[in-house]
Amino acid sequence: MYTLAPTDVFQVLLDAFCAKLNVPTHLVRMSFDGSPVLPYETPEEVADGDQVDMVVDWDQVKAPRAAANAVRVRVQRVGSKKTQVFTIAPEMTVKKLLESFCSLHNLVPATVVLKLFGEVLQEDVTIEASKVETLVAKVSRKRHVEASQVKFVIDGDAMHPHQPFHSYDLEGDEIIDVKLATV
């Protein structure tokens, strides 16, 4: 539901509609009572509660694609088993991820804290590509061992914990061996 003042042009309605659907304005046609409406016209004959039809040429709308270097971040609410996946740019700050999550769930950002392995994430830092040490920490917690006792090996070579996974040129079918040092 959108409200137009009698002095507004239909462009105001078009801009709000396109922003909501994330579509370019040139791919939307408007009509009122079966007649085309042009963006520069004013709603002189439109009464309160009238409906303006908006038709989007969906065949021309390009689906958004994630950047080649995009990072997938899984966010899970405390007490819930459901996770949500956000695809973000590696240079995006934690604050932007927090705002997106809060917007999606109608939450106030000041009431939400993002944590990674129990540590609070600072809002002004960027989300880097997943590093090997992230998985090392997860495995060490699950196996109840120190992180220094966990080693990942791919094709016979040890993976360095501070390297991001993308530096190993993984294609998806590789097997990463997990070796636990015995004490």
TrEMBL record:
InterPro entries: NFATC2-Int_DNA_Repair, Rad60/SUMO-like_dom, Ubiquitin-like_domsf. It is found in: Nucleus. It comes from the Eukaryota. SUPFAM superfamilies: Ubiquitin-like. Pfam families: Rad60-SLD. Keywords: Nucleus. Residues 130-179 form the Rad60/SUMO-like domain. This is Rad60/SUMO-like domain-containing protein. Its main location: nucleus. One of its GO terms (cellular component) is nucleus. PANTHER family: NFATC2-INTERACTING PROTEIN. The keyword Nucleus applies. One of its GO terms (biological process) is positive regulation of transcription by RNA polymerase II.
